[in-house]
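Teaching note: in complex prediction, the entire set of molecules is handled at once rather than each chain in isolation. The prompt given to students was simply: 'Predict the structure of this complex.' The entities are:
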Amino acid sequence: MLTVPLKILLLFAGTLFLLGLAGLLVRRNIIFMLMSIEIMLNSAGLVFIAAGRHWGQPDGQVMFIFILAVAAVEVSIGLALILQVYHHYKTLDVDAISKLRDHN
Amino acid sequence: MTTYIGLIPAIPFLGFLILGLYGQKMHGKIAGYIGTGAVGISAFLTFMVAARYLNGLPEIKSYTVTLWQWISAGNLNVNISFSLDALSLIFIFVITFVGFLIHMYSIEFMAGDERFSKFFAYMNLFVGSMLVLVLANNMLVLYMGWEGVGLCSYLLIGFWYKEPENGYAARKAFIFTRVGDTAMILGIFLLFLNFGTLNIHQIMQQAPEKWMTGSAIATVTAALLLGGALGKSAQLPLQSWLPDAMAGPSPVSALIHAATMVTAGVYLIARTHILFALAPVVQTAVAVIGAATLLIAGFSALAQHDIKRILAYSTISQIGYMFLALGVGAWSAAVFHFMIHAFFKALLFLGAGAIILALDEEHDIFKMGGLRKKMPVIFITYLVASASLAALPLVTAGFYSKDQILWYSFSSQSGGLWLWIAGIFGAFLTALYSFRMVFITFYGEAKTEPSMKVGKLILIPLVVLAVLSVLGGLVELPQAWGNFRPFSNLLHNVLPATTIHKKEGLEVVFELISATIVLIGVYLAYLFYIKKPWLVKSYEHSRLNEFFYRGWDFDKVYDVLLVKPIVWLAEIDEKDFFNWFNTGVSKVALFGNRVLSLTQNGKLRWYLMSFAIGIALILTYMIYR
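The expected output is the structure of the full assembly:
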């Protein structure tokens, strides 16, 4: 069986994480931001799987299941919120939603 | 029974707590009944304790109850303990009994006021503090009561605080008495420094052993305590706050600024009379200040138009008599006049309050007139009280108390002709201004119609006090009339008897002189203000009378000597380095606030960016450290 070295896996996960983060910071559309968060979560999951295999432990895969659950919850709540935001503001631009700013 | 002495001040304090915490939720007059009830219970307990005390005489002259230890630090031990003797007994009797009547009066007087329950809370706090003051067995506890009554005086003068002048009057009273209080606390420090204790009983025992008569330390200490007494009792030169204190509701003027608090100075001097006896210079000063004050205030009372200001100056003048008595060593005469004065002066203020209430806040006596027929009960009681104030011979209590002071001011060891002349002239002025007030207010043509009839709760206290203003004098008759002197006999358990060095037979002559002078005063008042008013027309509008009207311009002098320089200094001081530093600190803080609040811009991506940068920094640090 072909084995991918741990180093490559970690680099790959790191790249994915940075891509997600960059997307989160650059995008203004909330849906794209949510997708970026998903990418970041998955990169974290990938690290868990890789580490679990490296040490021959099942814990990594267990953690990945947890992360999947968290991601599912996050997406469902996030989408519901996005719907509400859209109803309210008629836009999905995060910068338009800045009512919590300090009035100074 | 005497173990319950602590309850006498505790119950008004409890009333204060209940009214202060839950008063806002009480409807109608419930708060008034609670406040009055608390003082009533205290008055009842006072009667019980008094009965017990009189039974225990002459074996047991004072009872002391220690409740708990308050402060214990080094050799400073202060106990909350109360001591009951003849002097404090008379004071607590007046405070609780007159206080009860005034509380009762206030239920009707203050009805409908939006801060009705606050009023009774403050009044109860006052009564409790005053009782602590006179029962205290320790200088520090006494001082606590002393400051407590000062606070209540401030709160109640400014009770109707929405008028800015009332707040000004309250601050003036507070600051004036504070000048005296500062002197007094210094005196207390000196006592502690020299005796290592603040227990009044122990100090009084040790003082004659440790200090020589006339020594510097005794003189300084007595002078400092006198300073406190002058401020509280509105004597020269700290008297000018009292007329302005009339901004408070009338029951407050009756209770605090006539009957009880302002006589705290008299109590203090009587309580520490041993110190004053050790400092003859200061004691003479007490007499001279009293004599000067009673004259100055008498002239001012004669010039006032506001009925309450007449009474205020009259109070200053009558306390001047008490100081005169204290100064010549007539301790029991001073306390006697205090008690009688409390009766008739409280009555005068309550009567004035009832008139003001019925005439819709009319204070000017020249706008009243002819009230005799419309308010018969108030007229009769007011007449009785004024007669007592003027010391109308034989029939009034004021005669017995004031004549005793006049006689001692001449005959006692430290008395003299000049003090007597000042006193007798003051008595003439008193007769003149009190009947001027009565004649102008109740006789002549009616100028303002009463808009309402006052009720029973107002009239009952008036009648009770009127009875006391007549019969109160019978507890002490002049020495020349046989030896019926239960009041001074009671007080001589605590205070020394007055030493007389003039012939005793002269007393009757002096009484005749003062009685004649008082009658002349009353007749002149009748002549000037009813029969032939044109006689005094030119005087009423003269410069001199205007000067008296402004209270001898003491306020102007203080303004020039103290207020203006301090304001000037404050203005200079505003620009100094410390002020620059302080405003600098606040400016830096404001700048920081403005910069940091820029980051709080509500932009989610901005937050995320700072979040990511933060994590990057922390990770970098952790890897490379």
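Point out the following to students. The mean pLDDT of chain A is 88. Chain A has one domain: 10-92.
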